[in-house]
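User: I'm curious whether this sequence folds into something compact or stays loose and floppy. Could you predict its structure so I can see for myself?
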Amino acid sequence: MKIENSNNPLILVVFGATGDLYQNKLSVSLFNLFTQNLLPKDFRVIGFARRLFSDLEFQNLTRESILNKNKTCDKQILENFLTHVKYVQGDLTDLQSFQNLSLELGKKDRENKICSNKLFYLAVPPNLYEIIFKNISEAGLAIPCARDLELSAFATGSGVTKWTRILVEKPFGKDMDDAKKLDQMLGRLFDEMQIFRIDHYLAKKNMRNLMDFSFSNGISKSLWNNQNIEYVKIALYEDDTLKDRANFYDGVGALRDVGQNHVLQMLALVAMEAPDKKLHRDIHEARNVVFQKTSLISEKIVHGQYEGYLQEKNVEKGSKTETFFRVILGIDNSRWQGVPFILESGKALDNKEVFVEVCFKNTKGCFKFLISSHNNALDDAYEKVFYDCILGDQTIFVSTGEVMAQWKIVTDIIQKWQSIPLVIYKKGSKAEEIK
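Assistant: Here's the prediction. I'll summarize afterward.
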């Protein structure tokens, strides 16, 4: 199915649209899809946030955001894109604001004389998820048509069933109990097929290539096992410091920020069995089977904090939040039993690089699979996130079973390191120097 052939209008609402995620990632990704004719002909992007903006002011912000990333883009195409961009001011915690949004979306449907597909993107801190989910549901936004249009001819339009979908950024919850609470609420308010939990690393081309490599040419049966592999190292290194992310990051830390999702998903793609079919449910289940068998196998846990972290803006006094971790996990199945999986990630290191390194026995060397670095240009993962969500393809998104299994692994790690001192390391350190 190609989106550009769809006659169904699309309204894409970005909650938290004046924040960094929209300005740095989402706006340019949507523009790139537009330039490739990969959005429906009739679409509208609505920014929703507390800031008092007019449509023109939000269009100006969007223009500046896109030009900051792509100074050579076709200016006329950019101006055409901006005609699809609108703004609704509202409070994310206020039900009335969501009811006002519902009226605005209903007005668009009446103008078109057809109900639009609706896509809601939560570009907000996780502590706002619960109230936003409730407000979406109570304002009637979880259904494709405004309530007074549900039984009208507008609801069928072209004869194609309309949909409403929700895109949720990681991390999903702050711990296992919180994740369960959110999941139970989502189950009451929405159908699972409406929920798209984002781990944008799964949308990266090199991550998809990693999965294909593991399954190709019988490699997973001949070499991809404990008879041949000494260890697997999965690393996500950042050279940046916290910068202005303290309000989100402090109290969350590296393990919850990237370990619970990106790093564990890389482990799953390396270790999962090739499913008989490549439908999204089969892929999700294959990854979840890995998580169910994964646990700590070593007490050698390192969690650290870079020098100067406590002086960063908005960091709590005396904070013990980790900016680096290293753990060793094992997978209790016939293919991987006895193979250590070394997972590490950190901020303020000497380089920026994400990779999987598979080292073979008997001095056969190591294979390094580069996911991203300063030196390689990747396709934009958020373009695929939007594209697949509009298509309704959940393959690169994360199931509720995976989320719970990942939190179980992370919760065990956090409990174990409570008695382990926090290591303080210098900015620009090599990961291997942090012990």
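Summary: The chain is about 35% helix and 20% strand. Residues 201-379+386-433 form a domain with the Dihydrodipicolinate Reductase; domain 2 fold (CATH 3.30.360.10).
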